[in-house]
Amino acid sequence: MEDDEELAIPGHVSAKRAARMLGVSTDRIYEFIEEKRLISKKVSGMHMIQIESVQNFKRSASGRARTQSPPWRVYRSGIRLEGKSIQVQIRFGQKEAFEKKLRMIREGQRYRLNGTMLRYILVDEQPPETVHIWLAWKDNEADEGDLERELTDFRAEFADVLDWETERESSLKGLLYT
Question: Whose CA is closest to 82, among 170, 149, 157?
Answer without folding.
Answer: 170
